[in-house]
Structures
1.
Amino acid sequence: MADEEISFPVINLEECKGCQRCIVGCPQNAILLSDEMNNAGYQYAYYSGYGCTGCKDCYFTCPEPLALEVHQFKKVVDDKVGKMIKAKVANKGGK
Ligand code: SF4
Ligand code: SF4
């Protein structure tokens, strides 16, 4: 079995004050600034959807306690099942 880690920032748009610290601090340039404003009148940060490595720099640089979290999951990849599927596909191809 092998573990595959999936990470991404979750930004609470209504708590974000648009200071852009997370945008400047992200080494992957994975956070962007919206053209739109939240209800408090700030342009808010949002995740581009790509590139997060889970380093948490954005979390530690954000001054708003409720604005940004980094979520991390471990996806368990079962190598045995993967090999069985590959073997089946290979056998079918040989017939
Ligand atoms: S956890 Fe790191 S890579 Fe991911 S968005 Fe935050 S600063 Fe960028
Ligand atoms: S650091 Fe926090 S408050 Fe500043 S733009 Fe990013 S999410 Fe918003």
2.
Amino acid sequence: MVEPNPCMTCGACCASFRVSFYWGETDAASGGLVPAHLTEAIAPHRVAMLGTNQAKPHCIALQGVVGECVSCTIYALRSSTCREFSASWEHGEPNPTCDRARANYGLPPIPEPLTQPFV
Ligand code: SF4
Ligand code: SF4
């Protein structure tokens, strides 16, 4: 049986931190994917997802209600920052930053799986 992806009912990391990355990942650059109009410049060579460079971050691409049901409207085009961020235990170890984001919204840390899936 496959466990449901906990991120589908969370989204806390997309609404807790500044999500920044090299501007060359945007479609303003050759080969870039992230829609540039959804980003803002924060440094000469860096951009951030709109909505995340503020006191109460909330990525413009996040749809839904944090802690209930969410999705990323640019999932296939998201930056390396988003792609490389793992939920706790997704790769067999906790991610304290995931836990901290969830705590921002009153969500408990994702529990350590009791059993390892068969491979
Ligand atoms: S905070 Fe963790 S569980 Fe929640 S969406 Fe981000 S990676 Fe997934
Ligand atoms: S681009 Fe998508 S995955 Fe990345 S922070 Fe925004 S909503 Fe989350």
